[in-house]
Amino acid sequence: MSSLEAIGAEHIRVTYTKVFGQVRLGRPGLDGEEDRAHLAGTLRGQLQLLLEDLEGRAGGFHGEIRATADHVATRAREALAVEEAAVARDPEQLHDMAVLARSLLELCRLPRLPAPATQTPVLRCLP
């Protein structure tokens, strides 16, 4: 079972929607300290599992997709380095973690592609 299957894509979407408060823009409308603490823990777990899944797929990414995956993975690791209690107190941190989880989810859902050819084909002229 992959990390993606263990979490469930729908659960990630539900968490993301909860942080963003349905259609609200800007700061999320979260229901108090306990709710924020729960979301911080949920997002942390999702990021950890999605990072594992992405690292298992990274060899199948090339070019811009690879650069994007590397960037999102780096940002996710930075977010995981922040103390969970500090994340729970800061709606911006929750927002960032939710965006990173959705980004990792979409990267993990991309198909693996074969490596691009490293040699330029040689064109030969016929006599």
Task: Walk me through what this model shows.
This protein has about 130 residues and is mainly α. The chain has six helices and no strands. The protein has helices at about 5, 10-20, 35-55, 65-80, 85-90, 90-110. Helix 2 (about 10-20) runs antiparallel to helix 6 (about 90-110) and helix 3 runs antiparallel to helix 4 (about 65-80). The longest helix has 25 residues, at about 35-55. It starts with a helix and ends in an 18-residue tail after the last helix.
Topology readout:
Blueprint: H1 3-7, H2 9-20, H3 33-57, H4 63-81, H5 84-89, H6 91-109
Key phrases:
127 residues; 68% helix; mainly alpha; elongated
Q: Low-confidence segments, ≥5 residues, pLDDT <50?
A: 22-26
Instruction: State mean pLDDT (0 to 100 scale).
Output: 80
Radius of gyration: 19 Å
From N to C, what is the helix and strand string? Answer: HHHHHH
Number of strands: 0
Instruction: Bin the strand percentage.
Output: under 5%
Total of helices: 6
Structural class: mainly alpha
The CA-CA distance between the termini, in Å, is: 58 Å
* Portion in helices: 55-70%
What profile does the largest beta sheet have? none
The shape, in one word, is elongated
